[in-house]
Every structure is written in C-alpha cells, then in structure tokens.
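Sat 14:20. Reprocessing the chain from the morning session after the first attempt stalled halfway. Input below, unchanged.
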Amino acid sequence: MSSLTSFLDRRFALTAHGTTVGTEVLAGCTTFVTMAYIVFVQPTVLGAAGLDPGAVMTATCLSTALATALMGLMANYPVAVAPAMGHNFFFVYAVVLGMQVPWQVALGAVAVAGLIFVAAAGVGLRERLVTAIPDSLKHAIGAGIGLLIATVGLQWAGVIVDAPGTLVTLGDLGSPPVLLALFGLTVTAMLMARGAPAALLGGVLLTAAVGLPLGIVRYHGLVSAPPSLGPTLFQLDMAGALTPAMLPVVLIFFLLALFDSVGTLVGIGTRAGLMRNGTLPRAREALLADALGTVAGAALGTSTVTAYVESGAGVSAGGRTGLTALVTATLFLFALFCSPLVRMIGSGYVQGTATLHPVVAPALILVGTMMAGSLRQVEWDDPSEGIPAFLTVIMTPLTVSITEGVAFGLVSFVALRVATGRGRSVHPLVFVCAVLFVARYAFLR
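Finished this time. Tokens:
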C-alpha cells in the first residue's frame, strides 16, 4: 500500500467503512455528474434577478467546492453540498422580483440565515424547529417548491404561456424551441426511468447538442478562464437584510436550509449505513459545513447551499466517507473552466415577447416531479393534516412564493387543530409562527 493510500485510509477510515480509494474516487465522480446540472441552471435562474451569470457560475463552483470539502473533512460523509434548487427560486421570484428587494439585500438575507444556522448549533434551536413543524407540512413545503420549479420550467419551455382570464394556457407546441424542450424532457425522463446516474446532466447536454444545428443554441466554445467574481463578490447587503420587512425572508431561508439539510443527511446517512441507533453521528459537523457554505456562497454571490440528495448516486456507487466528497469538490473546481459551455446552455431564445430557455427547462420540470414525491408521506385521511398540506402545495406555485405557501399551511394547521380540540398538540413555536403570519396579513398589507 502506497504512502498516499495509507494516509487516505487513516484520514478517512476507509477500511473501517469497508471501502477503498478507487471506490471512493468512482463514487465522487458519480455524484458530480448527477448534480453538475446546477452549474448550468444556477446562472440562468439568478440571472433573472439581475446577477451577472458568469459571476454566479464562478460563485456556484467555488461555494460548492468549499462546502463539499468541509463536509468531507469535518464530518467524513460522502455528501456533496451546492446551491439548492427551490432556494434559488425563492431568492429570485419571491424575494427579488416578488418583493422588489435588491439582490444585494437578498444575498444579505441568505448570509444572515446562514449565520443563524451556525449560532443555532449551540442552543439546539435547529432540533427544536425540526420537531415543531408538523411532518405533513415539511413534506408539503418540499412538494410545493417542486411544483413552483416545474411551473417555471414549463414556462421557460414555452409549454405554458400567459393568458388573460385563465392565468395560463397551452403554448405553441409546434414552435422550434418548444419542440426542442419537449425533446429534452422526453429524453431526460427516459434516462431517469432507466436509472441513468447522470440523467439530468446527460439530458441537458444532449438537448444542447440537438439545438446547435437548429440555431436555437449558439456555440460559444467549451473552455476558457473562469469568469470574474467582481460583479457579485462581497456585494451582499447584510444591514438591509436586518430590517423588519426582511425578517420573514430570513426565517424562510433558515427553515428551508434546515429542512433540506436534515432531511437529506438522514436520507443519505440511512442509505450509506451511517445511522447509529436512529441518530446520525457527527450531524453537528455536517450541518456546520452546510451553514458555513451558505455564508461563503452569499459572500461570493450565490443563493443558499445545502446537502444534495443526488449524493445518493455516489453512495449507491460505493461511497462511504468524506473522500467521496473531496473528489466531487475537486471536480467542481475543474468545472470553473467550462464557462463558454455554461453560457451556451443557459442563453435564452427570444420568441415573441417571451425569452425561453429550452435547454435547461426540462431539468427544472423533472426536478419538480422528484420533489413532489414527498406528498406520499402526507396523512391525507386526516383533514387537519391534508388540508394544510394541500394549501401549502397549491399556494406556493400560484402565488410564486414559498412564504405564502408556508403561511397558509401553518395558519390553517393551527386553526384546524384548535377547531377539533387538539390545540395542545400544536408546538408553541408553530403557534407563534401562525400568529406572526396572521399579523403580517392584517397589518402589513
């Protein structure tokens, strides 16, 4: 055994976890290809809020590499961390575009939420909040975000368009960009159905390749020096994020990061055999890596980073330790040099008054379908569980706001529990949140 192999074995306890350096490297590569679509999607999404796409791409790669490396070194888990799907849409459509908040202030809110995440480790607040929020609403929040992402994906594909009177209607399915998006949706869905580990990434690249000869996608090259971070580096406005109007936004960012991180870590930890007596060892270190990545990401110029469920692909390939995460982090650093490819894939196609993104739209639609799967966990037979869950799910895409979905869910949950004589079963924190949301609607609108 070489000296390097011996060092890695000792540092990451490879033998104790029943794995090898070769297996961990393969697992890290597998995780990377399953989640590399975020390198293409994140600049497109945040670009809609006015951020420089090139800077966002660089910030995405750097924050992902940093947070994933911290996860591997601090917690020794085979879990990758990157800007979260759903959080980025809340950042853009609910906060920046919906509330007309400057993106600098929105980045400040992400950083504040991350710092609270770090501070909460010492007082157990994270565990209390996870316990307080009803399970049905946790599942509904994730599904609602999924429907919001899918709705935006359908809009970016041109499959649905604005329609006076009915809000939306079917778009022109015969137009070239819509046909390209439908092709991408079909191919990517087929890859997913066949269990391809890089289905989303493969679908994006194949759709772009087909769009090139059609003139829908324009060739910009494949590799170059990384784009400058200048337009977004340290542009966050934390003072602006600490105003009363922004406190609900900070709370939502915090809760979303909390639920995503804990849920993903438990799920991946179970699959990797890391759980011990129902608990996850070194969970505090893992959550701290997550939180530090979020703060660093906001400083660099990207939205909340969190543990990625796609890490499960690497675990399925045999990844069991933090060495898997380090390999994934290294590959994201190499991705910094693919900015022309990112620009080619993320560039919009103007059709009439709309700007379509037919290459990345299929990935959004299918991410939405995966997130909607959590609805199977809701107790639909109990109206006090099912009705709040449904309101959460439906209000999130219709109002284009995760905040409104959470508000309707929490308020209706408390109201129905009280009406059925089960008010004492509601955690005090949930009561407080419901009252604050009611006050917000009553006095701030």
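The first strand starts at residue 81 and ends at 83.
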